């Protein structure tokens, strides 16, 4: 009698770090002979990899959990797990709230999923949220893309932004060694991957926890040094990195990005607010003047570089005048993409307990006004692509038009054009841009690069 393989389903909320963690956990599950399914109701193991940055994302997790908890009441063999930041934040309280759960595990334990499941298989309910040193991961992720891959270079966060729960749930900064990062990239190159995005909560803080210093007095290992170290990995044709913190972003790093041809001209540097008093209340460690100088330096060395960022509106105590400073910074810089959010109080963060909270009506009004400006400026930035020839790395079929494929420019602009995916996937092609939109482009193929 043939036994059907067990099936798993992972739903991922939140940032690229979570997506990278989910890929690693999927790799562990497949090594345990689970097979992926897109339908959680057909899965023998359902795992939610969670985000607690915004309250609506957290509430969505509980909604999803409720459905699967009811299912488990009729199917006690179902394994129900929660990973990520909500798991780390809530710990045993999450298990008490949803007693059907088998496993609650924080982000630092993603590489230990197999060991934790062994305890679950033996009948235990497991909560794994204690701080740990993240051991070098030898598992092979199940990559969601066959072209582009994420590679973690630094885990955790040492910042203490007053609105952010990340340091509480992802632990202190832990940098991987340059050799381990290069080894993972070399394996990706052998497997046919063309693009790697180096990931860290504050990636330009990379190496601060590694030993050694240079004769000039700087850290021996920095993101700049890492880029030089991995740049010649065979097979990898593009390198990106995210997310950068203005506190650590240096001119030396900018120069390296200009000098190294594989490093794409795209920078994601959140500014969060355009007002210095709000930035100080957020404990961000820089001023809007310093942020502008960073952008000026980037455009000095790479005038056509794409700049994306994050911004928060409605932070406690933010006045209309202070919000206007965020609008002014957004208009002056002209971001290619700006991810926006209304401030959301998060448990355990200082700002959540302040008395000067703004109403939801004020926050939503400011968010709408900022989003309108973002769309206008993005449309203006897109105009520079009109009739230009761009190098595009082909990734997937256009899900809305099967005659088209999609890929990204070096500036990370999503681009669509007619083509055969089997022939073009993983290749870099020259595309003449015929149509520009605020956040995407359309063109026609001229030739392979």
Task: Walk me through this protein's architecture.
With 449 residues, the chain is an alpha/beta fold. It is built from 14 helices and 18 strands. It has helices at 16-31, 55-74, 85-90, 92-97, 113-121, 166-170, 178-190, 223-230, 251-259, 276-282, 288-301, 320-333, 360-382, 421-424; strands spanning 6-12, 34-36, 45-50, 79-84, 103-105, 126-128, 148-155, 174-175, 195-200, 238-242, 266-268, 306-313, 337-342, 389-397, 404-409, 414-418, 428-436, 440-448. The strands form 4 sheets. It has a 6-stranded parallel β-sheet, with helices on both faces. A 5-stranded mixed β-barrel has the order 14-15-16-18-17. A 4-stranded mixed β-sheet has the order 8-7-9-10. The longest helix has 23 residues, at 360-382. The chain is globular. The chain starts with 5 loop residues before the first strand and ends with a strand. The model has no long low-confidence stretch (mean pLDDT 90).
